[in-house]
Hints:
Layout: H1 3-6, H2 8-33, H3 74-78, H4 87-90, H5 93-100, H6 102-105, H7 138-143, H8 146-151, H9 156-159, H10 188-192, H11 200-203, H12 209-212, H13 221-224, H14 239-248, H15 251-259
Amino acid sequence: MNAGTDKWWVGVLALVIAVVGGFSVHFMSNSNSAPAAEPSTATTTTTKTTTAAPQPEAPATPTVAAAPPITSDYQSARYDPIHFKPAIDKATDADCLKCHQEVLDTNTRDASPAGLKKVSTLAWYQTLDTYDGEQMTFHQRHLTAPFIKKVANMSCTTCHQGNNPRDEVSGTAADSPTDLTMRKMVDPNTCLMCHGQFPYQNMGLPGPWHESGVGFQNNCLLCHAAIRTTRHKVNFLNAAGIEQEGVANSDSCYGCHGGRAWYRTSFPYPRHAWPGAGATVPEWAKDRPTESDLRFLIEGSKP
């Protein structure tokens, strides 16, 4: 009997066992990688719903008044008609100070850039007998100082006649004004009326007033009580106040006639007729006008 032939079934059995084992491993790996089943609704825990506490109401926003609309910007304001003829001739100080109030509200510094305190020194104008009080700015001295209020009726338009931003010098165009002063906001001839030299040569005096005044008792009215008595009849001066101050102190006269000179020349004042003047006109006065500038005439007076 052949032993190898009789045991053929052993090989078949081994093959069957190998196939069954392979399928078993395959199915086990698939079951491990399958997604977990969702929990049953029966096993889930019901979450208790909580009601949110009511929030306090925000305070009401206060009502703020709306800012007034801006009607013009700076560039437009520069060309406002008030800065040109003829509106500038009718402008009041209130009209000007609507935009330029800072010229009066700004005060002098408490100390100079070098540290010199103003309470420890005197400005040049404080050394004059006609000035009283603390230091003041240029515009304050010309508009609100106690002395200027006595002798003058200065206003903004006395000095400022507007400004044309387009052209500040004459002759740049065929139609440009002929009375422009380059880069100056005020015509220097206006300043010269009160800040010119003392014309002692025209008066026949031997020298400036601070040298020759003693020969006249430092009294201007020693001569001018009868000479050129028609004076100060303009709308920016207080003629009665000047006469009163001149009697009390001749420095009140000299201040505007050489005492506070900014220039090396004197102003050619109009030669108004006065009682007893006579017909003879000195050589130096032959070209002088006989009336003040039209814009300085007192309203209602005879031009």
